């Protein structure tokens, strides 16, 4: 049986607003997500056993049942038991290039790749929305990772509304290698500090969510106005992550001091990105920030916006 190699891109948040609490214990969010070219590579092979086996080249990625790529394969085996019985177990090989626990949806995109890979391997012919429904059972960012591109994400992040592609922008992405931020910690801390700002009823949540649709960033994206996009970046979680991690604040400031379109922390952090208009500019900013911060623990990448989510290589 043939194997599948999938490219699983990371995402950044151009916008992340926390609107309130949901009855299911998750936060009600209004976000704009963007796929980027920085990606993991996932290979899926039938292994002729009854087991799902996982391999990864990154020491911080768990290789047990807590790995979200494993959970994605398990979910598919439970949903389509006749296929699992017919085709047997699989080996999942993760070539991890996306930094871990960085606010870049590294795990979520691996899970999305496994769903798409098994759909192909088992000839299921699932539609994008069927794949996204399964994805929502695994995590809030997984549905976005299936289709990728540029999209408004509301609800827990699983209600998606695509926006026009923005394939013209570059970014310099930075993260301290030894620093990871737990998404759960960031949201819990935000709730402890800012619960009084939460919308309490569904109509207010709806109203605030709709405001994003008619807001400056969506209009800037529609008009491909890079300068306005840079000025409209927003992330509520900076309010808790930056005070807790002064070196992230310092990194954010180092970008802010450069000639860039805008800078923001992605998701729950601690990765920070700076938007620029060209590759040459990205290289200059990367060199300058590297020199200013001068810390061997700081990793920097140059990447660009990507118009798609998971793609199949072979
Ligand atoms: P998100 O932006 O979706 O909240 P993140 O980018 O902040 O996620 P991940 O890289 O997905 O964070 O990692 C979060 C934690 O999930 C890690 O600390 C790791 O232990 C665990 N994990 C489980 N499966 C994976 C996976 N396939 N890749 C990376 N981390 C994984």
UniProtKB/TrEMBL annotation:
Catalyzes the phosphorylation of the position 2 hydroxy group of 4-diphosphocytidyl-2C-methyl-D-erythritol. The active site is at residues 11, 141. The keyword Nucleotide-binding applies. Belongs to the GHMP kinase family. IspE subfamily. Residues 67-149 form the GHMP kinase N-terminal domain. The keyword Kinase applies. HAMAP family: IspE (MF_00061). InterPro entries: GHMP_kinase_C_dom (IPR013750), GHMP_kinase_C_sf (IPR036554), GHMP_kinase_N_dom (IPR006204), IspE (IPR004424), Ribosomal_Su5_D2-typ_SF (IPR020568), Ribsml_uS5_D2-typ_fold_subgr (IPR014721). It comes from Floridaenema fluviatile BLCC-F154. It comes from the Bacteria. GO terms for molecular function: 4-(cytidine 5'-diphospho)-2-C-methyl-D-erythritol kinase activity. NCBIfam families: ispE. Keywords: ATP-binding, Isoprene biosynthesis, Kinase, Nucleotide-binding, Transferase. Its EC number is 2.7.1.148. It catalyses: 4-CDP-2-C-methyl-D-erythritol + ATP = 4-CDP-2-C-methyl-D-erythritol 2-phosphate + ADP + H(+). Residues 218-291 form the GHMP kinase C-terminal domain. This is 4-diphosphocytidyl-2-C-methyl-D-erythritol kinase. ATP binds at residues 99-109. Pathway: Isoprenoid biosynthesis; isopentenyl diphosphate biosynthesis via DXP pathway; isopentenyl diphosphate from 1-deoxy-D-xylulose 5-phosphate: step 3/6.
């Amino acid at each position: 049986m043939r194997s599948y190699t999938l490219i699983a891109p990371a995402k950044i948040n151009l916008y992340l607003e926390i609107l309130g609490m949901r009855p299911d214990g998750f936060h009600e969010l209004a976000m704009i997500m963007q796929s980027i070219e920085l990606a993991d590579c996932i290979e899926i092979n039938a292994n002729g056993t009854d087991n799902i086996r996982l391999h990864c080249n990154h020491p911080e990625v768990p290789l047990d049942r807590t790995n979200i790529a494993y959970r994605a394969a398990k979910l598919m085996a439970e949903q389509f038991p006749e296929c699992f019985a017919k085709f047997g177990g699989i080996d999942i090989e993760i070539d991890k290039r996306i930094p871990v626990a960085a606010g870049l949806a590294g795990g979520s995109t691996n899970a999305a790749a496994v769903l798409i890979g098994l759909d192909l391997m088992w000839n299921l012919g699932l539609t994008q929305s069927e794949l996204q429904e399964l994805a929502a059972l695994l995590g809030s960012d997984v549905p976005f990772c299936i289709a990728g591109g540029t999209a408004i994400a509301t609800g827990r992040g699983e209600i998606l509304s695509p926006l026009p592609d923005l394939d013209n922008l570059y970014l310099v992405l930075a993260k301290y290698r030894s620093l990871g931020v737990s998404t759960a910690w960031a949201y819990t801390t935000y709730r402890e500090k800012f619960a009084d700002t939460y919308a309490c009823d569904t109509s207010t949540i709806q109203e605030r969510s709709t405001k994003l649709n008619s807001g400056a960033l969506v209009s800037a994206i529609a008009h491909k106005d890079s300068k306005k996009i840079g000025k409209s970046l927003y992330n509520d979680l900076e309010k808790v992550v930056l005070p807790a991690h002064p070196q992230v604040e310092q990194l954010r400031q180092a970008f802010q001091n450069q000639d860039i379109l805008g800078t923001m922390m992605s998701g729950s952090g601690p990765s920070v990105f700076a938007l620029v208009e060209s590759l040459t500019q990205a290289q200059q900013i990367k060199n300058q920030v590297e020199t200013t911060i001068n810390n061997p623990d700081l990793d920097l990448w140059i990447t660009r916006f990507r118009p798609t989510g998971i793609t199949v290589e072979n």
